[in-house]
Amino acid sequence: MSNLIFSYLVYIVYFLGMGLVSSGIVLMPFNIMRYSAILLTGLILFISGTIFNEIVINKKKLSFVEITKLIIVSLSLAIGIGMISGGISHFKESPRYVSYLIPTGIIISLISFTIKNNYKLNKQSKIILAIAVLIIAVVVHSSLSYFASSMLGNGGDIFNNMNNMDNMH
């Protein structure tokens, strides 16, 4: 029973942290102080879940160096995934920003995932993967940039609706 509760709590912390990271990253241009605090809270939650999962649930004995590596790689993984998910969720609010955010998130999250899960690739596989992910990132950026330029002046509907609601009172 305790394993169920601990595992459930770790998932809540992971996903809540990830949601806050996503929001913090993508909405930061609208209010730096507010969304930096949300981003930081999300990163702390995500790291807490990661450490708790590895040390308490999986009972791994990690050295200081291994814990430091786990924290750094988990932070970069959370940021990369947050860039992708937050960008997808809030493309209309900041399309040009998101056109850079999502492809950068793809690159960061793939590198972090590879390191975190200790994938060992030979030189040829590394080169092929690097070229493939760069091509994907360029295509995603180009596509999003195209859509962003066609939307110019039409972004920010969430914030415009909030302003319209304020004017109604």
Give a verbal description of the structure.
- It contains six helices and no strands.
- It has 169 residues and is mainly α.
- It has one domain.
- The longest helix is centred in the last third of the chain and has 29 residues.
- It is flat.
- It starts with a helix and ends with a helix.
- 27% of the residues are buried.
Low-confidence stretches: 161-169
Note the overall shape.
flat
Beta strand %: under 5%
- C-alpha end-to-end distance: 51 Å
The main β sheet shows up as: none
Rg is 19 Å
Fraction of residues in helix = over 70%
Mean pLDDT: 87
Report the order of strands and helices: HHHHHH
Number of DSSP helices?
6
In total, how many domains does the architecture comprise? 1
Strand segment count: 0
What would you call the structural class? mainly alpha
Transmembrane segments: 12-32, 38-58, 70-91, 97-115, 127-148
Keywords: Membrane, Transmembrane, Transmembrane helix
